[in-house]
Amino acid sequence: MCDAEGRVDPKPIRLVAAVSRNMGIGQKGDLPWNLPNEFKYFIEKITSVVEPGKKNLIIWGRKTLEPFAETLLPLPNCINALLSRTLSSAPEYVHYVCPSMMDAIKMASTPPLSENLETIWVIGGVEPYAEAMKHSWCDQIHITDIMEDFDCDTFFPEFDRDVFKLAKEFPGIPTGIQEENGIKYAFQVYQRDVLFT
Length: 197
Fold this sequence. Notes:
It catalyses: (6S)-5,6,7,8-tetrahydrofolate + NADP(+) = 7,8-dihydrofolate + NADPH + H(+). Belongs to the dihydrofolate reductase family. Helix content is 19%, strand content 29%. The protein has helices spanning 36-47, 62-65, 69-72, 101-108, 126-134, and strands spanning 13-20, 24-26, 55-61, 78-83, 96-98, 117-122, 138-146, 154-155, 165-166, 178-180, 183-191. It is globular.
């Protein structure tokens, strides 16, 4: 993952998802719950940057992007990359189309794009999540633990909780149980030690 001069600029890879007790994340291409405050938290998480002028790369699977493209994009402080093996041109507000997760990560870690990026956020779907969490630069999985089962047809992939360990506290993450529209949930961060080399 280097440019012509051999430079590589590793970026932290982070996943974010709302996950029901039965590991569900979607139903018929949409979210199975209506939690506006949780969704606001999600947007704030992926659009926040520490260093002014930097941006985050948001990696979308095609099925994840479709229900949100017209209502959610563009997002501030974000560059959007869509994973697709069949699209030849980028839809509106999508900056890059990449055939694979590895191609997106390589692009993000190579100048000139890497010079302006802070974090890579993977926001779905199942395959992008599974591929990203295996990458050596993946250091955090941000989960909103939806504390009940939902009828879902799409599920968050299993991950090793001995490798990604639940943080008891995490800066900037609300603590305790939240409740919205009669649904209880809690924000969690699983993290592992990563050497960015």
